[in-house]
Write a structure and sequence with these properties.
about 325 residues, alpha+beta, DNA Primase, Chain A, Dna Topoisomerase Vi A Subunit, Chain: A, domain 2, about 40% helix, about 15% strand
Length: about 325
């Protein structure tokens, strides 16, 4: 039968309503802006499983499980990714289209390698969250900053973390989890000293913000420096890798699509932290670029959802149309 086409997968994921899917399996109770239930993934007496219709995602504040409708089906029904897409396609009456050509050995190897990288990133995310929730003074300071800016519940739901000072804790975690260090070098989470070949953690003393791809998988991180050294850059992004290309990434897009379809507009801001601030107060159609000018590849992704954008610059006066670049004219004004 082959593999489902990328276009079909995206159409299914965009159509899937997480509340509608989860309510097929467990009883949800309306409370405030969302829905609650006892978590189906761990035993509990008080509901901590939350479904957020605005962000089209679920999150358990007890065990930390979360994601979109696909993630729920994979976890709750023990489905593969492709099985979950096929199930959702049937639910939403979407025709499933498959790739007709056979994958080459190189393509299969590349796909296997990407999955290994995704696994490594997921483990790093667990480490950052573990550190964020620790009692270490630096972690307490990181939580204070994050909670003040985005709110405690949103930080937990989104997966905000903390990369501790030094490298020892990170390498202890890698050893304990038996993660391939070469993958982490490729992803940019381990640096190598050219002089003596010693290795060190790239993300240190930073509040970490996970970057999700269109399938709601963590593919990279933005790190905000939490220390006082003025010579260290405030923000650092993961480097380009087979699973992350900064020049193509629209930060916040997976969470923004549902509301943008309703409002018929995306709200564009300067960077990831500003996106989170707006999304944390319910303006979930907010998106941003990651330290790059907006280009045609960015805008094509937005244009596939709706035809209007509203740009909100930061306090610094933007220079000409450099924030948009030629991509805006090429995609939106060309129609």
């Amino acid at each position: 039968m082959g593999y489902i086409t990328e276009q079909c997968k995206q159409r299914v994921i965009d159509a899937a309503d997480v509340h509608g899917v989860i309510s097929d399996f467990i009883q949800l109770h309306k409370k405030g802006a969302g829905f609650w239930a006892c978590c189906p993934f761990h035993g509990e007496k008080s509901p901590s499983f939350y479904v957020n219709p605005a962000r089209n995602r679920f999150h358990c504040f007890g065990c930390g499980e979360g994601g979109d409708a696909v993630a729920f089906l994979m976890k709750h029904q023990n489905m593969t990714f492709q099985q979950a897409i096929e199930w959702l396609a049937r639910k939403y009456n979407i025709e499933v289209r498959y790739e007709s050509k056979e994958q080459s050995q190189q393509e299969r190897d590349d796909a296997k390698h990407r999955e290994s990288l995704f696994f490594a990133v997921a483990e790093v995310q667990k480490f950052f969250i573990e550190c964020f929730n620790s009692d270490a003074p630096d972690a307490v300071a990181a939580r204070k900053y994050a909670y003040n800016r985005w709110g405690e519940d949103f930080c937990k739901e989104y997966g905000i973390g903390y990369a501790p000072k030094g490298s020892a804790a990170f390498f202890d975690f890698i050893k304990r989890k038996q993660i391939n260090e070469d993958y982490l070098i490729e992803l940019g989470y381990i640096g190598v000293n050219e002089a003596d070949k010693s290795r060190y953690a790239m993300f240190r003393d930073r509040v970490t913000i996970p970057i999700y791809n269109r399938w709601f998988k963590v593919c990279a991180f933005t790190g905000r420096y939490n220390g006082a050294n003025p010579d260290i850059g405030k923000y650092m992004n993961s480097r380009t890798s087979p699973i992350f290309k900064k020049e193509e990434c629209v930060f916040g897009l997976p969470d923004a699509i549902k509301m943008a379809r309703i409002t018929k507009q995306f709200i564009l801001v300067e960077g990831g932290p500003d996106v989170l601030r707006l999304q944390s107060i319910g303006i979930t159609q907010a998106v941003g670029a990651l330290g790059t000018a907006w280009g045609e590849k960015h805008f094509k992704q937005l244009h596939s959802v709706c035809n209007s954008v509203c740009f909100i610059p930061d306090s610094e006066k933007p220079k000409g149309n450099s924030q948009f670049g030629a991509g805006f004219n090429a995609v939106f004004r060309a129609g």
